[in-house]
Amino acid sequence: MRVLHVITSLSTGGAEIMLQKLVSALNPQHYTSTIVSLTTTAPIGTELETAGVRVIGLGGRGGVLTPRQALLLMRTYDAVRPQVVHAWMYHSNIAAQALVGLRSRKTRPGLVLSVRGALHAAHEQKLTSRLIRRLDAILSSRSDAIVFNSRRAADQHVSLGYDRAKIHIIPNGFDADRFGVRPEERVRVRTELGCDGATLIGLIARFDRLKGHRLLLEAARLVTDCRPHYRFVLAGRGCDASNEELQRWIVELGLAGRVHLLGERRDVAAIDNALDIAVCSSISESFPNAIGEAMACGVPCVVTDVGDCGYLVGETGYVVPPRNARALADAIVRMGELPEGDRTAMGANARRRVIAKFSMHSVVQQFAELYELCGRR
User: Strand, helix or coil at 373?
Assistant: First the structure.
């Protein structure tokens, strides 16, 4: 089966990483994948090309294509002759719907849309983003299926006009072999950071207002007031020394020397292993890859109650209200002060939960079944 994936970008966001994991895990004897990014292809696209996947970057800006770029998309479609078009995120959904809509009903491929975000802070997003989402909702009735990775996000989008009858909930999947307990990596990274003996708390997420970096730093201020041996790690695109806003917050909150800014890293599993606690401080989230990966590494997590974060961690972590630095700080301290054996057991339970409920094998099987259901042969 020929599957054409259309995605807004191939940077290191959650949707991009999930697409990479899916395409890499699909049986190549049964599925041929071609990926079109509306914008650029690095770094995920580069890695996929190295693995032998055909990747095309159209070079659009903000998900908007010029006539020449739109023509390249149509030519790619005609060359691939897909049996399924799978779009990822709002801009790509609209582009794919326009692309498939030009074909007659008899010859068009199956159309699968994806929505990867939640709406906990919808009114705080750009007007253009809200308009694109509304347009996607209106057009989505033409699709064969709409995939959400979060039950709560699906319910939120139904209220905007997405057709509940076409919704499929497929959570993010995690590779428990790649993300596992690695004591040697724990030692290596903690030595690199010079924090051996500290209680290390980490947030792995790109720098974005919805990810709650400011909230975590406010919680860190409260934590270090009573637990000076706690240290914090921020890793992800934009979380480096060149981020003046982040640096200003650290100084303003008196956290100099207590926060490590690692920037974008590809050795995420190693960083996870170095942590004692992983945190999701988002004010809006759907189903965070970073938390599932940390759980697979045997790290207990503290998460805000947005999207399906609470469902993801279950009884293996702590869930706190969003936008509440005090609640976040209290949960971090409570988990950090558990006897080491209890915290290790909590992390082991987290890993077992990921393997049992969110394995990559199970998720790939669900997508394969959906492709077979929607595909045109």
Answer: helix
Whether 226 and 195 share a structural domain? yes
- pLDDT tens readout for residues 163-173: 999 999 999 99
Alpha-carbon distance 207 to 238, whole Å? Answer: 5
The answer on 162 and 49 residing in a single domain is yes
Which is nearest to 259 in space by CA: 240, 272, 242, 244? 240
Judge whether 99 lies within some domain: yes
Token reading at 238: 């934009």
How many whole angstroms separate alpha carbon 175 and alpha carbon 267? 14
Q: Count other Cβ atoms within 10 Å, centred on residue 98.
A: 14
Mention every residue, 6+ apart, whose C-beta is less than 8 A from residue 305.
Answer: 319, 320, 321, 322
Instruction: Give tens-digit pLDDT for 28-86.
Output: 999 999 999 999 999 999 999 999 999 999 999 977 899 999 999 999 999 999 999 99
User: What gap in Å lies between CA 84 and CA 33, rounded to an integer?
Assistant: 10
Q: Read off the DSSP letter of residue 320.
A: E
Alpha carbon distance 342, 258 (integer Å): 25
- Host domain of residue 286: 183-357
**In Å, what is the CA distance from 79 to each residue of 50, 59, 108?**
21, 19, 14
State the Cα–Cα distance between residues 198 and 331, nearest whole angstrom: 17
Label each residue of 194-234 as H, E or C.
Answer: CCCCCEEEEEECCCCHHHCHHHHHHHHHHHHHHCCCEEEEE
Tens digit of pLDDT for each residue in 312-349?
999 999 999 999 999 999 999 999 999 999 999 999 99
140 and 209 share one domain: no
Q: Are residues 122 and 42 in the same domain?
A: yes
Structural domain contains residue 150: yes
The answer for 194, left when phi > 0, alpha when psi is -120 to 50, beta otherwise, is left
Let me know if residue 178 belongs to a domain.
Answer: no
Q: Can you tell me whether residue 6 is helix, strand or coil? A: strand
Identify the CATH number of the domain in which residue 21 sits: 3.40.50.2000
What angle is formed at CA 126 by the lines to CA 123 and CA 129, rounded to 5 degrees? Answer: 95
